[in-house]
Design a protein that fits this description.
7-stranded mixed sheet, Rossmann fold, 281 residues, two-stranded antiparallel ribbon, binds S-adenosylmethionine, methyltransferase, S-adenosyl-L-methionine, 39% helix, HemK-like, 2 domains, 11 helices, Helicase, Ruva Protein, domain 3
Length: 281
Amino acid sequence: MISLQDWQRHLGAQLAAVSDQPIQEARWLMTHGLGLRSTELLINPQKVLTPTERAQLQTLLDQRLSGVPLAYCLGEWSFYGLDLTVTAAVLIPRPDSELLVSLALMESQVEDDLQLLDLGTGSGALALVLARERPQASVFAVEQSPEALAVARLNGDRIGVKNIQWLQGDWYTPLDPNLRFDQIISNPPYLASNDPHLPDLQHEPRTALVAGATGLECLEPIIIGARSRLRPGGRILLEHGCEQAAAVHTLLHDHGFQQVHTHCDLAGRERVSSARSPDHA
Ligand SMILES: C[S@@+](CC[C@H](N)C(=O)[O-])C[C@H]1O[C@@H](n2cnc3c(N)ncnc32)[C@H](O)[C@@H]1O
């Protein structure tokens, strides 16, 4: 007879091999795997698990012990207060990207006519925050992977935002040619194909991570395309690797952008660059 409490202890002990917060992870896997509220673990710890429930937990535990990120095991992840569905088709939204979206919100006015664009939307994380925080704005979210875009749409439906258009294709190509934006934001793939961190990221889609030989192969077309897609005075905000700020500045300056700034995360790493449209006098 194995109880909830027994399994929670068992999971915690096993997860210590792959996690620095095994107790918390055990709780999440239990509640998710069994469809319980977290309070039920406290209220009814002696409840005996059925063989089916034990098998469900064992499957989740095996996945996690084999190195599958917790977010994919749970199928859900939290970003900027939103609970998002995540599958192996999308990058797991990172706390790092909260810097990008916070800056975008700080820079955007609360106006009726705002047009905002998120390039490479993945799970829809950034676009959904913008749409929720700027309900009067029209948000456009572009994603090349149809599988990822399906996850983003699902998240949009679950959260219930109405002011996003989801578009599938290569950066600016699926957009109406007449559209112009007040803000273009992107967290594009920016790793170089030989980046030493890639083995640790093997469960996430390579197309969401790797840009090409130098790591700048996505940032560059996004910057070039933004020249003609921003309204006068419009802003571009780009997440990038902490060693890419100088290269991104050069690209922005070379393509006529003004007021080029780098923004650091709480650890002081240069993670976001922003600039103003070249059209602004
Ligand atoms: C680093 S992920 C970012 C996902 C999401 N915006 C986030 O911050 O969590 C980059 C995304 O860009 C998408 N992508 C890659 N190349 C693209 C392209 N040429 N056009 C549109 N999207 C692209 C990838 O499929 C991936 O979903």
